[in-house]
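Our working data are protein records whose layout never changes between entries. Instead of coordinates, the fold is spelled out as a row of discrete tokens. Here is such a record, shown just as it appears in the course material:
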Amino acid sequence: MQHSPGKVYLVGAGPGDPGLFTLKGKTLLEHADVVVYDALVSPQILAMCNPNAEMINAGKRRGRHSLMQEDTTQLLIEKAQTHAVIVRLKGGDPFVFGRGGEEMEDLVQAGISVEVVPGITSGIAAPAYAGIPLTHRAYSSSVTFVTGHEMAGKYRPVVNWRAIAQGSETIVIYMGVHNLAYIVQELQAGGLSGRTPVALVRWGTRPEQEELIGTLETIAEQVQQAGFEAPAIAVIGSIVAMHDILAGCRPLVN
């Protein structure tokens, strides 16, 4: 009898706090035959996995790739031929700068059954845990989410930071620490004042979370002086002023 291919679930692990992981995601981990996980998935969430599951680290961090993207997709296709439940566990949300759309497209084209399970994205959760609401009637009625890490040969050569500077009242940048000096320069060239507040939130929602607060004029130098490194979310706009008022209300993290 020919074996029917299994199903791949693209599961968002959220930003790190295990309390923010979805019930659906937890149930799938408990029943998974194979779990292919990323570098930013917290140990507490990995501990929820079926103890008999095959665990495969496909983590990607700048300069340190466990598996190339094409290899990861091919691995999922191969595992679906021999296992019933395959979980592709991705930090944050699979469809928000998580390459989930690319992986899902390749799986569908290969004839593999696939389903997405959304997760809380760090661009929302990290600022929230730092006391920075992304919208507020007195500060911000619009938000732009953008990646600061661009792929060579992508559909367009560069992010138009100068246009983004005028596009909304709050800008949230994923993976932007490495290119931060260039980004803040371009945003100022696009019309944002050098005094515009900036917050960097590192390891958002985890016990080791830390914040660095500055302005477009100062933040790049502050990053160098503090040795502040990725992974971090950048929030740019007047809404950052709320950090001083709300930072003491940070949720407890397990």
Remarks:
- The chain has two domains: 7-117, 122-248.
